[in-house]
Amino acid sequence: MNYLETGSQSILVVDDELSMREFLQIMLEKEDYKVTLAENGRKAVSLIDRKDFDLVLSDIRLGDLTGLDILRAAKKKNRKVVVIMISAYATTETAVEAMNEGAYDFVPKPFDNAELLSTISHALKLKFKVAAVDESAGETGLYFKRIVGSSPRMMHIYELIKQVALSKINVLITGESGTGKEAIARAIHEQSKREGNAFVVVNCGGIPEALMESELFGHKKGSFTGAANDKKGLFEEAHQGTIFLDEIGELSHGLQVKLLRAVQERIFKRVGGLKDIEVDIRIISATNKNLEKEVIDGRFREDLFYRLNVIEIKVPALRERKGDIRALAQFFFEKYSKEMGKVITKVSSYAIDMLNKYDFPGNVRELENIIERSVALSTTNIILPESLSISIHKRRWIEGMEKKRFDLEEVIKGVSLDKILEEIESAYLKKAIDCCNGNKSKAAELLDVSFRSMRYRLSKLNIS
Known about the structure:
disordered N terminus; globular; single chain; alpha/beta; Helicase, Ruva Protein, domain 3; 5-stranded parallel beta sheet
């Protein structure tokens, strides 16, 4: 079915003002959209539960519920639904929260009719383009050329990539080393209108401090010893493209000050230069540090942090998305088998089971290294546990964890199995909620239980 055919797309309009509902209905039906109206939040949630919509257009203030409640309900029912918020009371904080929750856009009232219709049209085109990409991803779960995984947390990241790619908004990507932060930054660039232009990577922890300013902004001839010619900086090289500031938390305080103006205004001076240089760039940063803590401890400027962290994408550690290990392992086996001219047709379930038992402190990068070595040393066309190039200490760790979890030396008389299971369940529930910043709906997805089951378990264990 061609979902872009006229009249095939359904829109739910949620607004507590009758005149606004009727106006939007008339305007949208003229464009041949199928329109359903809801006068309050509860009616909207009820409609969302009963029917699938392609797009939800909701006011932020509704009297009973908020637009954010509608957004969460819509995304819980169908993560692919497009949600656009409209409000006469828009604030930066509310807009950022809506975007982080998965909204496509936030349109202030009064809005330009043509602009709103254009936003809706582009959003729906992107929705069905992405749906086609999702279908072609197949069982490998490969997205955006180099990102693999279909766990709930990764699917949320894919949605964020699609949403932020179309704007110039600054993005901060956080997560442990080896989780794939640069791959996500490249995906944002490749999904944007800047795709054909430069993607410039700056390793903020790998360039000596004395050279960093010149590397970023360039220099004029004679500005310091060794400056024999004028030189463009990386910000200029990234003009009309994207600059990726990796390990941003490693920048010295002095360089943070110099970076602030460039981030805020896209204007800077070369070292030794007098002329302002203006660039059109997208800025994406990444760090494995807790920058909020760095700000509190005085090691990172608060104003720079908030300018870089307009939208944050938190990349989970591999141990937090073990359901993706099989797809990742298969992807790397196919990649390195092709590169090395080997024919490896299958990864055995026993080998995957061994990988699942390991916590991968080095994350995806460590898994890739293990697979690369395993392919290089393999003499068969199937990967078995003994074929995995896992060091002795890692194998002992896996065996130790197995014994710790399942091989009990004894069962003490009078032990309460129900109590033990309650403690385990409680620990998992609390950790999941903590990982999802208090969002119980996302925590339920993380634990692969329904939201209703999640509420029941929290109530049963008296967890607030």
